[in-house]
Structures are given as C-alpha cells and as structure tokens.
C-alpha cells in the first residue's frame, strides 16, 4: 500500500544479571498525513455501521476504508473543522462533536447540519457535547441523548432537539450510565471527576477489587458495561457498586489514563505518555507491556474484525492487524543481536532455542525466555551462522562461513571442530559421522576430503553411513566413502541444475534448486517436480527443512511452502501477507505445534496450525458516479440523459484494513450473475460513450484468501435525447432515405448518360482503330499476291497468271468488303481463306494441301469474328513453314468453341518456327514480326470495347514435346459474337 508504512516496535527489555528476558513483539502500522490522514493529531476513532473507520482531527474528519482516506471539512458540511469526538448510532448516523456545540451528523453520503436540516436547530447555550447515548428500546426512530459541558442532557428525536430534557444537573451522566436498561452508551469509556452520586446514596465503591480478575462473572460485567476512568484507575460501574478492576500505580502506571480498550481477555490502557498492553489480563497475567513510549494516546478502538486502532496527539494513527496477535517477533530491538537471521534450531533436551545470525553471533533463548549472546566466528568478511543441527546430548553442531563448531547448551560453551573456508552445508549420518560441503570440496570429518573440485559445492545429504549425495552449482553427484569420487547422479534433468539444498527422506531425495523449484528423485528417476506453476511460493529455494514426521518446509525468497512428503503435494504457503516479517526466508524449524521462521527481517514464531485465515468476503460499497464532467452521489439507481462522447464511470471501494492492495474486483454489465464477469485490480470501471438503454451493473470483490462477496447491484438508465427517440429516428431515416434516393437517381442518370456517351465514343474509336489495322493488312496481302503473279510470269505461266489475276481480283473485292466491317461471319471468313489458299496453292505449284476442321457445335450458331485476323497466320505458315520445305506439305486449320471464344489453330508440317527464323532475311523478320504484332494489337483493341480477352501463341512442335514432328502450331483465341 503506497500510503502505508510499517513500524516494528519492540518493548520490554528487562535486565536480569547478564541476560535479557524474551519479549514478544507486535508489528504496528502507522498512518499519517502523507498517507491522506487529515491531521497528525487525532482525537478519536469510531467505526460506523457500514464498517468505515472515522477519525476526528483539528482540521476535519477522515473516513478510512483500509486503502484511502476521504476527508471532510467545514466546506463539506461540518459545523466546525475542529472535531474532538465521534459517535455512531444504530441507524447508521455518525455524529460529530465540535467545540461550537452545534449538532451535525453524516448519513447516506451527506453531512446534515442546522443549515440543511431544520431538525438540528437549537440553542446550545455556548456549551458543547461530551458523550452520547441511544434508546435501548424504541421503534424505527430511536432518540439520541447527548450530555454536554453544562451537565445537561439534550434529546434528538429525529424531528427536533429538546434541551435539558432530564434536568438532573451534575449527576446526569451517572444517571444515564446507571439506567443502562434504557440508554445504550455510544462509547466504551467515560472520564469522571468523582464517583459520588447524590442520586444513588446506596452506591458502594470498591477501591480494591473484591474478586479475582479471573472471575468469569466479573469479566463478563466489565465486557458488557462501559468503563469509568478516574485519574489512573478503571472502574466497572452499576446501579449498586463501582468496582476498581485496574489501579494504575499497582501496575507501574503513574500518569492519568486517557483511554481504555478491552480486547477479549486482553487490556489496552492509553495514557499521555505511552500505551500499555496486558495480554491475558482476565486470565491472571501480571506482565505489563509498554508500547509507543512517549506517545500521547488519545483513543483506542477495537473494530469488528479484531484490529486495534490507536490514535495519538501529533503522531497519527497506529494500527495492529488482528492476525499479528497470533505471531511473536524477535529482532535486534527486543533481545537479538541483529534482525538478519540465518539459522534456527532447538535443543529439545534443555528446550533452548538457538538463533544463528550474521557477524558470527549466536543468540540462545532459554525456556524461561532469557536471551544470551555468543560470538562464535570473528573472521573478517562473511561470518554468518549458516546451519545449526542437533548432534549429541546438549551438543549442537554449528556451521559458520569459516568454522565448524560444537556448542554445549548446558555449559553454553563452544568448541572448534574444524576451520573450513566458505562452508555451505553440514550433514550428520545416522551413526554420527559429520560431512561438510564447502566451496569446492567435500569433507568427511576426521576421515578424508575431496578437494579442488571444478564446481561450487552447495549442499550434502547422507543416504547411509557410507554413501551420500552432493549438490553443486552444476548438478547432482553421488559419492561413497569407499570410492571417494563424485559421480553424476540421476538422469539428464540433474546435469545442469544449480542445486541449493538436499534432503534424504524415507528413500526419496528432495532437491531444492536455485531457480527450478523442487525435484523429487527415487532410484535415479524424477518422480515429482514442484514449481511456482504448482503453487510453490517461489522457484528460488533457499533451504529445505524436514520436521521428521510429515512435512517438508521449503524456505524461498517469497515465503515458506509446506509440502506433505507422503503425497508430495503443497498443502499451504506462508508469506508476509499471512503475518511474516519478511518473505525472504533463510530457515525453518518446527517444534511440536510451534513453527519458527528465520527471515532477513527477524525471527517469527507461532503455532503452525493456528494461523488465522480471514475468509469473510469484504464489504463493498459504491463510492461515486461520474458521467461526462459531472460527479454524482452514490445511488443504486442512476438515470441521466445521454451525452455524446461522455464516459460513464463508476468507482467502488471495499472496507479492507488488512492487505487492501490484494483486493480483486469483478464487474458484470450483462445482468447475468453466472457469466460475463470481468476481473480487475482496479476499483474504477469506465464505460466510454455508453449508448442509451437500461443496464444493470453488478460488482463483487474478494480479499486475500476470501470468497467473493455478494454482488452489489446498480441500475443504470441512459435516456435517449429527442433525436434518439424511435419516432424521431424514423422521421429522420425516412427523410434521409428520400433525399438519398433523389440524389442517387440524379447521380445515376448523369452517370448513365455520361457512360453512354463515353461507351459510344470508345466504341467508335475502337472500330476505327480496328478498321485501320485491317487496312494495314491489305497492302501487305496485295504485295505478297503481286509477287506471286510476278513469279508466274517469270516462269512463263501466262495462263495461270491470268487465272490467278482473276481469282486475285475476286479475293481483293471480298477483302475490301470485309475491311469495312467490324465483324464478318465465320462462313465468310472460311470462304475468304479457301479462296486465298487456292491462290497460294497455284503460287507454290500445288506443293501443299490444306484441310478445315470445324466443330459441330459451331454449325448451330452464326458466329461473327473480326475480319483478316486468321489470314496473316495462314500466310506465314505457307510462306515460312511449307514453302522452304523440300517435300509436299500439309496445312490444317481447326475451329472450335471454347467458352465464349473461338479457338483457331493453324498447324503445318513445315520446317518449324525456329529454323524458319534462322534462314529468313532481316526484311522478312521485320515483315513477319509486324504482322503478328498487328494481330496482338487488334486483340487488345477488341478487348477494350468487347470485354473478351484473346490470345495468340506460336509453338515449334519439334521443341515442344510433339515427338519428332516438325512444323509450327499457331493457336489463337478470338473474341466472337454468337447468335442463334
């Protein structure tokens, strides 16, 4: 907790010749201004019905939930900032006593005063209230009675204030206390100047208690009735007698008593000089423990959980958690040499406790509580007492950083057994043989040593009198007195482990590691691995301690884990959250039901089976509500108009005084109490831009080791603005749709017109481009045909030349007709190609034959294709494939339908594409490349206005896996127009 500091106070240092008496310590927490308290001077403390602790200070009041203070001053509704007393009634009101005498109280998040509550208006005659009472019986509205400095009684009925209701003058207070069947006091103790009561002449005053304090009837009376404080004596008052059950001088207390608290069988007495604690006062205990020396104690409070609150004049508030009464603490403030403890053990024969510390110091604590101190290691550098083991009768084996000693508990003298540098661990065999692990060597006392090892030896565990295991920073080893050589032990798991401690228990080897938790080995095999994933307090083990019967205690850097050696399961963890002085554990020792834990911050001991576990869920409350820039008082129902981009935020709190930082929250906004819970450590739940609607927020919490609390529900209703109403949204939606339809219609019309114009424009351009490219083919074909006529004339074939010219003229007329069209029918294209091929046959002296193959499916449709797109391919096949061939050639033209495209293949058995390219002249290459590029360009232009994608591919059959066949195969996919 960021605003909390811990102060460990120790007391009762009683000199007894050369020894000290053991004093139990308590861990006390201090809260001050830096933690949020309104003032360091605190006059009084009280717990209200909800569970909050309230503190009265000269600068207002503080309400505390265990984690944060909420301060109230005059600006918040107090009648005065100087509040010297508080009282909580059964209705839930918290009354503030101020020096101006005006009444005010806190109820349901509001401070009521005479300005905002007319029922509190009255004339106080310049006197202020000293104490308060409440009707024992009554209806819903019990009257509250106040006793003021003018010895008058003021009654508040809930509707008005009645001054001097009883009119009994100086005896009014005693009269109220005497009639405890009618009036319930709202405080546990009262200061009186005298016990004389003229209205009760038969009162018997016992200045010496006539009964023993162990008398159960007397104890019950003291617990049930308010206590009267008369100077430095305490009295139990009734209508018949006043019994002094505590006389300060008899207990060594000379100053006047300022306050008192009765806690079960314990008595707390506060004075202007100190706080006194008598544990088991009602069981006859006679020892007074002085706490908070030189502190002015202004009030004492025991809350519902058993925690003790101590308010002081100028030193803030002190708090003792209830669970700390189950623990006892020792460090350098109450008997030990230092707060740093390294080892702990007990000589069961003499019942002497031995505490090993740094600086080579051993503290012994006798069964009567006397503490002695011995210096066992004076070497420079590290000289801590690392290990203490029982050896023989009255002899304890003690290992320090530099020595192995034998300490006799009867004579309280130490004897050096061996000087050992950097001693790490000591073990004793069943027969009493001593083995030592030290730095890089293993020593068997008085027998042999295995030295100069290339590893750091950290621990040792005897199996028998002649065999043992050795733990090192590089793994586990086994050794025997016969071989005297370390051998790797276990499986591969132990080869690279950094081992911290070993324990051999009933045939099992327990291995504590530096960072991997606990391994359990049986016959060289790992049978169990326990780590933080299995609820081990930490994977960093510092020591293993076996109590000899059932439990193995693992000391770690985060507390102690208790393991059942039979089931090899972790039964519980003990940490500073449970009451330890520190989580850095150096050693553990168990003696019957008492558990001793050595920490880096002192020694803690307690009854191991009597640890308090607070399983009661915490009290959860609604602190405030924020919506947008506004903050609202807590309420279970919240209704507000929707704000755009406003965050809805709810702040909850819990009343937890012990470990408030470990409180977990769960909230649910779905209304389903079984599902949808979100867990968080934050007590503020934001919901950004919450849309209008009705919601149910449920929140629950749990503290350390407790169950979840009962959910606290809150109804949230975010009302829609007018424009968010269904009818407004309907109108806006219809209007928006109509507007969108009008705009869309206008836009679509404009787009369609523009697209129509653009499409027509692009179509005309594409057709013109296609015709232009077709016309580019005409000169090309004419040039080749005239070359053929020239060839016939040169060959003296005049008749054939004339016939050729006639057919050529017909072909030219047909070509001119086709060039003016964007598409021609497939039949027209085949007729054109047939006429062209016949001319080429004449030209090449019938050196080839041709054949058309047309798919039957094409005959069912009238298919239109772009003109003059197949002819250049056929021409190239004849001229560059078949013409150079020495033998007769064959040309096949195949037409098929593939999806919505016309597949056309021109297949010749000529010399092939690659060979043709190698023998063509550069002019022919240019000519041929131009023809093919024009075809590809035409296909792209057709795609632009037709949308269909064409393709042209040239394949040399010899090189493309057609066996030994020669020739060229040209495949073209032509976009078409298909009609039935």
TrEMBL record:
Bilayer-spanning residue ranges: none
GO molecular function: phosphorelay sensor kinase activity
SUPFAM superfamilies (alphabetical): ATPase domain of HSP90 chaperone/DNA topoisomerase II/histidine kinase (SSF55874), Quinoprotein alcohol dehydrogenase-like (SSF50998)
Gene Ontology CC terms: membrane
Source organism superkingdom: Bacteria
Pfam families linked: His_kinase (PF06580), Reg_prop (PF07494), Y_Y_Y (PF07495)
Keyword Kinase among record annotations: yes
InterPro entries: Bact_2-comp_sensor_kinase, HATPase_C_sf, Ig-like_fold, Quinoprotein_ADH-like_sf, Reg_prop, Sig_transdc_His_kin_internal, WD40/YVTN_repeat-like_dom_sf, Y_Y_Y
Domain Signal transduction histidine kinase internal region: 769-847
KW Coiled coil (keyword) present: no
Keywords annotated in UniProt: Kinase, Transferase
Gene3D superfamilies: Histidine kinase-like ATPase, C-terminal domain, Immunoglobulins, YVTN repeat-like/Quinoprotein amine dehydrogenase
Two component regulator three Y domain span: 657-719
Listed name of the protein: Histidine kinase
């Amino acid at each position: 907790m960021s605003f909390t500091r811990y102060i460990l106070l120790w007391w009762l240092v009683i000199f007894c010749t050369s020894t000290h008496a053991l004093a139990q310590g308590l861990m006390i927490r201090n809260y001050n201004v830096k933690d949020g308290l309104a003032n360091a001077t605190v006059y009084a403390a009280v717990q209200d019905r909800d569970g909050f602790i309230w503190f009265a200070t000269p600068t207002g009041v503080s309400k505390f939930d265990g984690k944060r203070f909420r301060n109230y001053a005059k600006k918040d509704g107090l009648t005065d900032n100087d509040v010297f007393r508080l009282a909580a009634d059964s209705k839930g009101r918290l009354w503030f006593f101020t020096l101006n005498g005006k009444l005010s109280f806190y109820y349901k998040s509001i401070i009521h005063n005479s300005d905002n509550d007319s029922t509190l208006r009255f004339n106080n005659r310049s006197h202020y209230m000293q104490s308060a009472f409440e009707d024992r019986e009554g209806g819903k509205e019990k009257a509250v009675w106040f006793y003021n400095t003018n010895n008058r009684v003021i009654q508040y009925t809930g509707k008005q204030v009645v001054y001097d209701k009883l009119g009994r003058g100086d005896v009014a207070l005693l009269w109220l206390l005497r009639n405890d069947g009618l009036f319930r006091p709202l405080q546990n103790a009262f200061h009186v100047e005298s016990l004389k009561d003229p209205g009760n002449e038969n009162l018997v005053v016992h200045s010496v208690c006539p009964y023993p304090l162990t008398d159960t009837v007397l104890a019950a009376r003291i617990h049930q009735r308010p206590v009267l404080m008369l100077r430095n004596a305490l009295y139990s008052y009734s209508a018949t007698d006043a019994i002094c059950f505590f006389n300060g001088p008899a207990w060594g207390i000379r100053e006047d008593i300022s306050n008192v608290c009765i806690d079960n069988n314990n008595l707390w007495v506060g004075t202007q000089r100190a706080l006194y604690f008598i544990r088991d006062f009602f069981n006859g205990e006679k020892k007074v423990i002085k706490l908070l020396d030189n502190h002015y104690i202004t009030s004492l409070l025991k809350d519902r959980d058993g925690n003790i609150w101590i308010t002081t004049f100028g030193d803030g508030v002190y708090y003792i958690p209830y669970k700390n009464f189950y623990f006892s603490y020792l460090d350098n403030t109450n008997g030990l040499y230092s707060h740093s403890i390294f080892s702990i053990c007990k000589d069961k024969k003499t019942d002497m406790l031995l505490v090993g510390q740094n600086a080579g110091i051993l503290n012994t604590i006798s069964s009567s509580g006397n503490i002695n101190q011995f210096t066992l290691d004076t070497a420079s550098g590290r000289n801590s007492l690392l290990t203490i083991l029982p050896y023989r009768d009255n002899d304890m084996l003690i290992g320090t950083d530099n020595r192995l000693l034998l300490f006799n508990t009867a004579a309280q003298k130490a004897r050096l057994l061996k000087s050992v540098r950097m001693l790490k661990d000591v073990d004793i065999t069943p027969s009493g043989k001593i083995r030592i692990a030290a730095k890089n060597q293993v020593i068997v006392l008085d027998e042999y040593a295995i030295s100069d090892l290339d590893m750091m030896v950290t621990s040792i565990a005897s199996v028998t009198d002649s065999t043992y295991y050795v733990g090192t920073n590089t793994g586990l080893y086994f050794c025997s007195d016969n071989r005297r050589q370390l051998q790797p032990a276990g499986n591969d798991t132990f080869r690279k482990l950094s081992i911290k401690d070993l324990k051999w228990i009933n045939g099992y080897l327990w291995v504590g590691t530096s960072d991997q938790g606990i391994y359990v080995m049986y016959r060289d095999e790992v049978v169990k691995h326990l780590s933080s994933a299995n609820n081990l307090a930490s994977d960093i083990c510092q020591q293993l301690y076996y109590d000899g019967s059932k439990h193995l205690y693992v000391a770690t850097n985060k507390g102690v884990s208790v393991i059942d050696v039979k089931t090899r399961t972790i039964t519980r963890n003990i940490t500073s959250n449970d009451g330890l002085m520190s989580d850095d554990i150096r050693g553990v020792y168990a003696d019957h039901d008492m558990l001793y834990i050595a920490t880096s911050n002192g020694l803690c001991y307690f009854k191991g089976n009597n640890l308090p576990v607070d399983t009661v869920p915490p009290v959860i409350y609604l602190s405030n509500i924020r919506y947008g820039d506004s903050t609202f008082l807590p309420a279970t129902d919240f209704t507000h108009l929707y704000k755009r981009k406003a965050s809805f935020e709810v702040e909850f709190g819990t009343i937890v005084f012990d470990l408030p930082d470990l409180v977990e929250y769960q909230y649910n906004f779905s209304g389903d109490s079984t599902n949808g819970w979100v867990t968080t450590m934050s007590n503020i739940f934001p919901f950004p831009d919450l849309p209008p609607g009705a919601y149910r927020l449920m929140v629950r919490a749990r503290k350390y080791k407790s169950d979840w609390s009962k959910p606290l529900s809150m109804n949230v209703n975010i009302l829609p603005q007018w424009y968010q109403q269904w009818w407004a949204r309907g109108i806006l939606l219809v209007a928006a749709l109509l507007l969108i339809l009008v705009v869309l219609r206008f836009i679509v019309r404009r787009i369609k017109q523009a697209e129509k114009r653009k499409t027509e424009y692009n179509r005309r351009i594409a057709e013109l481009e296609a015709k232009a490219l077709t016309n580019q083919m005409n000169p090309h074909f004419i040039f080749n045909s005239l070359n053929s006529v020239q060839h016939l004339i040169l060959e003296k074939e005049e008749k054939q030349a004339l016939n050729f010219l006639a057919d050529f003229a017909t072909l030219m007329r047909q070509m001119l007709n086709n060039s003016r069209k964007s598409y021609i029918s497939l039949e027209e294209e085949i007729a054109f190609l047939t006429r062209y091929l016949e001319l080429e046959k004449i030209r090449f002296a019938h050196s080839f034959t041709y054949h058309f193959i047309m798919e039957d499916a094409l005959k069912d449709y009238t298919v239109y294709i772009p003109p003059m797109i197949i002819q250049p391919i056929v021409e190239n096949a004849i001229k560059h494939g078949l013409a150079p061939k020495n033998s007769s050639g064959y040309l096949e033209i195949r037409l098929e339908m593939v999806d919505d495209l016309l597949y056309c293949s021109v297949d010749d058995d000529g010399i092939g594409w690659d060979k043709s390219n190698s023998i063509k002249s550069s002019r022919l290459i240019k000519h041929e490349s131009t023809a093919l590029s024009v075809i590809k360009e035409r296909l792209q232009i057709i795609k632009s206005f037709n949308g269909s994608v064409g393709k042209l591919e040239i394949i040399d059959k010899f090189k493309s896996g057609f066996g030994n066949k020669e020739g060229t195969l040209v495949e073209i996919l032509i976009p078409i127009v298909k009609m039935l």
